[in-house]
Design brief:
- By secondary structure, this protein is an alpha/beta fold.
- It has 18 helices and 24 strands.
- The strands form six sheets. Strands 9-8-19-20-21-18-22 form a seven-stranded mixed sheet.
- α1 runs parallel beside α18 and α2 packs across α18.
- It is globular and about 65 Å long.
- Bound molecules: dihydroflavine-adenine dinucleotide (FDA).
- Dihydroflavine-adenine dinucleotide binds next to α1 and α18.
């Protein structure tokens, strides 16, 4: 049987925070919308999950994005607007640093307990990246005077140009490499690293985990998407991957003709003319005046565009890829580290698990919990990035678990080896994400193609955290981009 066809002002593709925010904003402004989502749930890379414990209970975990930093004001405002609450990450007590030789050091405050020489070199690199981030900015890094130059050198080599201290390089590079882009520091440029820092306000902000990993949403970050979706009601269609997007007629016969059509449609949009556009999904076909493509850029090519996208976008999209990271969740009878005066925070540049944090739950979602209460169980979160993630996925499950837990025990001691529940987030295996946390350009890509990423293609507007300035690669950026796409459409009409 043929799919039902419906008419709406705007069709939104993807029900992650970006797409839902776009639809929510458009609907509030009186436009009719349909949101087509491939998965059987909303939230995209934010996802509230449960994992069964050996105690017979189900334990709450956040499989995807969860933390909010103080600069992420659009998201914090939205959380409040939606009637949701936040809580602070537990961070009292002593933190642990494991040095390259595997020695464990206790510390407090935001300085790693490295020797004075390394400390000085780290400061130098952090100052350097602060000034590069300021120079480049988050809005148009590709337009910076030194964009091409900074984009031609890997972040690793850039840092190595400024110091010989390998421990300093390892410790500073993780704030962007394994810590954010989740790619090895030799695979992306100094310009891409500067964008990451500028999007968070400064490189120093990336270094400061109290800043970056500040607050969480009670009931989990997916609640933001679930609440937005509630406002949209029947306008959200789950299990509806978009396979085809028709955006211009007539179908051109040459690439030049296509580029002319794209330019015409783009000019038309600038002059207030939109559409028509038709999105064909597995369950429903939507005719609309504009589309918001709110999927990560690595998935654009899952959709057949009719006619094909202009040459420059087809090329650019091949140079954007997802990072790879495993988010590790380990649940314990109690937060035992707190009883030992530890914060649960641990760092070790270049190690299998380079960072661990206390991730104990608060709010209503934990086993039997109610709002305004903390989970009596203790949860730790750790991250295994890029090449280590590959190494771990190649192991049998039990060996993988033991290796990861033992790397976490290097920070927090032998009790770490005995969780009552254990779970590894595997967004790389998810067809509609294919990695984590987000996408970035390969070496040299940002300066060549960055300027295209936010340009609408005729009636197709792009929205995603991965093309954001402020809040790049974060839920805040997704919300900002969703809202911006909605405003651009409202202005065009
Ligand atoms: P997102 O990927 O969330 O949503 C896109 C949606 O489009 C998905 O629902 C997908 O199914 C759908 N889709 C794709 N193709 C489609 C098609 N053809 N048709 C229909 N639908 C389609 N951020 C943060 O702020 N703090 C944090 O702590 C973290 N931590 C973190 C951990 C992990 C493990 C991950 C994976 C990610 C994070 N993030 C994060 C990043 C954050 O989750 C991410 O930036 C946002 O979810 C991005 O929202 P978007 O809406 O842009 O894309």
């Amino acid at each position: 049987a043929q799919n039902p066809t419906i008419d709406r002002d705007v069709v939104v593709i993807g029900a992650g925070p970006a797409g839902l925010m776009a639809a929510y904003t458009l609907k509030k402004a009186g436009k009719s919308v349909a949101v087509l989502e491939a998965r059987e749930r909303v939230g995209g890379r934010t996802w509230n999950g449960k994992v069964a414990g050996t105690d017979g209970k189900e334990h709450f975990i956040e499989i995807g994005g969860q933390w909010i930093s103080p600069d992420q004001t659009r998201l914090s405002d939205l959380v409040e607007e939606l009637g949701l609450k936040t809580f602070s990450r537990y961070r009292e007590g002593i933190s642990i640093y494991v040095d390259p030789e595997g020695n464990r050091h206790e510390y407090t405050g935001d300085r790693l307990p490295v020797n004075d020489a390394t400390n000085k070199e780290m400061d130098k690199l952090i100052d350097l990246m602060n000034s590069v981030a300021e120079e480049v900015g988050a809005t148009e890094p590709w337009a910076a005077e030194r964009a091409a130059e900074l984009d031609s050198i890997s972040f690793k080599d850039f840092l190595a140009q400024h110091t010989d201290d390998q421990e300093a390089i390892d410790n500073v590079s993780i704030y962007v490499a394994s810590g954010m882009l989740t790619k090895p520091a030799h695979t992306f440029s100094a310009l891409q690293a500067a964008l990451m820092a500028a999007s968070a306000g400064s490189f120093s902000n990336l270094v400061d985990e109290d800043f970056i990993l500040d607050k969480r949403v009670e009931g989990g970050m997916q609640s933001v998407s679930l609440t937005l979706a509630k406002h949209l009601g029947d306008d959200v269609f789950l299990g509806s991957p978009v396979r085809e997007l028709e955006w211009a007629t007539p179908d051109p016969s040459t690439a030049d003709e296509l580029n002319n059509i794209a330019a015409d449609v783009r000019n038309g949009v600038e002059n207030g003319v939109l559409g028509p556009v038709t999105a064909v999904s597995d369950k429903v076909t939507v005719n609309a005046k504009a589309a918001v493509l709110a999927v990560p850029p690595n998935l654009y090519n899952r959709i057949q565009f009719v006619p094909p996208l202009p040459r420059e976008q087809q090329v650019a999209h091949q140079h954007i890829s997802m990072g790879l990271v495993i988010k590790v969740h380990a649940v314990y009878e109690t937060p035992f580290w707190r009883e030992e005066g530890l914060s649960g925070t641990g760092f070790g540049g270049g190690r299998l698990v380079q960072e661990v944090y206390d991730n104990t739950n608060y709010g209503e979602n934990f086993a039997g919990g109610t709002s305004g209460e903390e989970d009596p169980y203790g949860t730790l979160v750790g991250f295994v990035s890029d090449v280590y993630a590959e190494e771990m996925w190649a192991l049998p499950a039990e060996e993988r678990k033991q290796r990861i837990l033992s790397a976490m025990a290097d920070y927090l001691g032998p009790k770490t080896m005995e969780p009552i529940a254990f779970y590894l987030s595997d967004m790389a295996a998810e067809e509609w994400t294919r990695g984590a946390y987000a996408t970035s350009y390969d070496l040299g890509g940002l300066s060549r193609w960055g300027h295209l990423q936010n340009q609408p293609t005729g009636p197709i507007f792009y929205a995603c955290s991965d093309i954001a300035a402020e809040g790049y690669q974060h839920v805040d950026g997704a919300v900002r981009m969703g809202e911006a796409a909605a405003h651009a459409i409202l202005e065009a009409r």
